[in-house]
Known about the structure:
This protein is an alpha/beta fold. The protein contains 10 helices and 12 strands. A 6-stranded mixed β-sheet has the order 6-7-8-3-9-10, sandwiched between helices.
Amino acid sequence: xxxxxxxxxxxxxxxxxxxxxxxxxxxxxxxxxxxxxxxxxxxxxxxxxxxxxxxxxxxxxxxxxxxxxxxxxxxxxxxxxxxxxxxxxxxxxxxxxxxxxxxxxxxxxxxxxxxxxxxxxxxxxxxxxxxxxxxxxxxxxxxxxxxxxxxxxxxxxxxxxxxxxxxxxxxxxxxxxxxxxxxxxxxxxxxxxxxxxxxxxxxxxxxxxxxxxxxxxxxxxxxxxxxxxxxxxxxxxxxxxxxxxxxxxxxxxxxxxxxxxxxxxxxxxxx
Length: 271
């Protein structure tokens, strides 16, 4: 199973440093969710783990080896990434999209094998997309389209799935639909899933391991019960809140009260 960790990682864009001295290990076989305010570095860290952003300094290890020194094809057999707002050619069907996920396992001129066909059949079934296999992505609802992209990522046959805000732009029903699918894939097939979420209560409900990022650093990490506190909400999101138990699943749940007095005073000083 894929192992992913960062050692003294520095990340940034041009001359702006976003993350410094990051040490982080992703628990195997669990759902890890990054939370934090806008611009704190969550997506930057996820992009670096997927090798979409090269570190300024430090090392990301995949299965104990520097991910930057591993061939692209070998990395793609171990790790799949679903970025924000993925785009596909117009008219592409769900099944055609899924076959793109098989490219790391094929040669340049290789034809689809029986193994490829069986994998596509499986991912369509697991994501509930069999009935939509021949339908164009353009004709799908937001939730269906996101499930199709997850099916493509699954088709890579990797142990690690990285997803950057997979519920963005979806209504609440489709958000839960996608998160329940990911939870099932984790529980039934031991996929290690790492994602960025904005909704704090959804993060607390679906995470095994929460990583709270503030100003490019790990503010706190652990189980939702360990991380999800009124102090964390105030320090990271500048909100006063009340933390209660979710009446359905028992996970911690944030009831926002309002912008904290300290944050208001700081804002007034900047005006």
